Amino acid sequence: MQDMAIHPVDWLVILPVVLPLLGAALLLMLREAKEAQYWMALGTVAVLLLGDIALATRIAEQGPVSMTMGNWLPPFGISFTADLVGAVFALAAAGVTLLVLVYLRLDMPDRARRDGVYPLVLLLLAGVSGSFLTGDLFNLYVWFEVMLIASLGLMVLGGRNSQLDATVKYGFLNFFATTIFLLSLGLTYGTLGTLNMADIVAKAPAADPAVMASIAALLLLAFGMKAAAFPVNAWLPASYHAPPAAVSALMAGLLTKVGVYALLRAMTMLLPASREVLEPVLVVVALGTLILGPLGAIAETNLRRALGFLVIGGIGATVTGIALNNEAGLAGAATYVLHAMLTITGLYLVAGLIEAMTGETDTRRMGGLYAAASLPSVLFFVLMLAVAGVPPFLGFWPKLLLVEGGIAGWAPNWDGWALALWVGVLVNALLTLIAGSRLWGHIFWRAGHESAENEAPNPDLRRLDRRATWLGLAPTAVLTLAVFLLGVWPEPLLGFGKQAAAGLLQSADYVAATGVAGGEP
Amino acid sequence: MSTLIFRTIAPLLTAVMLVFSVFVLLRGHNEPGGGFIGGLIAASALAIYGMAMGGEAARTALNVHPLAMAGFGLALAGLSGVLSLAFDVPFLTGLWSIFDLDGSEVALSTPMVFDIGVYFVVFGTIAAVALALESDGEDA
């Protein structure tokens, strides 16, 4: 046992998990009171958001914080260790969930509400926060499972055939990924005798490099599948369009980002030597994902499937940062995850409004929305530019950092890989812009359906009532505003990126906070 | 399944199994047993009752929805960890209170409260599944 007195402030690191778990439990008990459930879920997430803000400020001031459960010594007890990357991601996740909850009020069929959509959202948030904050690889696996179960529940709520179809695909491939993750955990424990992340940092260099490289390869496959990186990305566009828009916004905004975060943590911080070995694989994965994502979005006619491909393109950008592994590249990856959480969620929410107004999911049958509803069209346009990385919006800065990282990686010894990644990021931006503007043209600009007489006005447009307009547009507008403000005033974002990259590359502070002291128990 | 013999014996069997499940739960701290297996036994008891009397009767006998019970268990388990907040120790640290009751030593602890929470989570979840399988899926 350790004799450190724990100050109540230290509980901030565990609060983002305990609070939504308790909230979900309470909501399950109150399953008859649907109205109360909504307000309590909203309240829980709001308090959680404040807690996350406090945690992130604390970490920004004094470096990583850690707490080991049950008063056991760190390598044996399960540690929660939050550094700046994890804390800021958890903060963004809570903010996004709060906005999606507001939107959810508009979107959910009554049956879904009865079957517990709010407890599931809170459980999902608990899983996501837990993944971002945990300092133990096996615990990360547990949070992955919590997330998976909650998201399966959310995806199937409503019970339409297409949802069941999507859930089976999503569930099977994700269970496969977590099984591979579990395999690699067994190997890690057998080799190093520890699963505490800080302890792994200390012990991995002494282990057999071949074994560590195979562990890293298994982790890359598992997390790559979770993140929907090329070539294991097929499940994402096949499943994310099926549930109601708010649910798919939540999943697209948060779940793949957890995979990226795990990849960032495992490759850059835990097993840097094995990352070197796997670098060619990472580069190919990054390039494939960068190019394939937006190309898929260009070819796709279903609106939310096309957005799914844009999500994949963004995953490519973050894997690029991991493949570059220099300060600018990692800063680009970290800030890109943040940007994608806000922007992609916003896009899915607008897509939900578009589907509600046109009554269609196929972009060829949409059209004429610009005249009917100008505000959604402006929001979609801004978010689309942000995804492509056009200044002055948020998406520009991560891509700039990645481009900078490409040049920095290429310049000293004419590294061809870095050059290829540099070209890949630029091509991805261009293709994403084409895909996005094509979507905008189809949905908003063309007057009617795509056909011989596409100048005729769209006869199927429906106006949203006042309540739907407010509940639907307000969260999206807040997200878009955040995307714009962080774009024109990027100082906090860039500062976060720099600190995050430094924290991932030099893990001494992280290890010291956990208290394993260089591997000596 | 609703033969006379089964219907006569099922309530008795259910009662015995429920008592036994609590016994297994409390015994679990030092000997084989615990919340998980206790919850399973309790859920099987309910399943037997449901098989004999029908799903509707089992639901009525339960009074609250099984998922609400699972939520209660989760809350109990979580709160047993939060209690350590008051004692300046990390989350989920085991807290013990041992006192004498009429000559025999009684140990109350947060691990026990946690285990009771597990009991309710397992019982609620498995009971919900069992009852859903017995009904035709309309009010799962």
Question: Can you list the strand order of the major beta sheet of chain A?
Answer: 1-2
Number of strands of chain B: 2
Largest interface: A-B, 25 and 21 residues
Shape of chain B: elongated
Count the E strands of chain A: 2
Regions with little confidence, pLDDT below 50 for 5+ residues of chain B? none
Low-confidence region ranges of chain A: none
Q: Give the percentage of residues in beta strands of chain A.
A: under 5%
Overall structural class of chain A, as computed from helix and strand content, comes to mainly alpha
Bin the strand percentage of chain B. 5-15%
Mean pLDDT of chain A: 88
* Element string of chain B (H = helix, E = strand): HHHHEEH
- How large is the count of helical segments of chain B? 5
Q: Which class of secondary structure composition applies to the elements of chain B?
A: mainly alpha
Radius of gyration of chain B: 18 Å
Radius of gyration of chain A: 22 Å
Quick take:
The complex is a heterodimer of chains A (521) and B (140). Chain A is mostly helical and 521 residues long.
Q: Can you give a write-up of this model?
A:
The complex is a heterodimer of chains A (521) and B (140). By secondary structure, chain A is an all-alpha fold. Chain A has one domain (10-513). In chain A, 75% of the residues lie in helices and 2% in strands. Chain A has 21 helices and 2 strands. Chain A starts with 14 loop residues before the first helix and ends in a 7-residue tail after the last helix. The model of chain A has no long low-confidence stretch (mean pLDDT 88). Chain B has one domain. Chain B has a two-stranded antiparallel sheet. In chain B, a hairpin with a 2-residue loop joins β1 and β2 (104-109). Chain B is elongated, with a radius of gyration of 18 Å. The mean pLDDT of chain B is 87. Chains A and B meet through α1 of A and α4 of B.
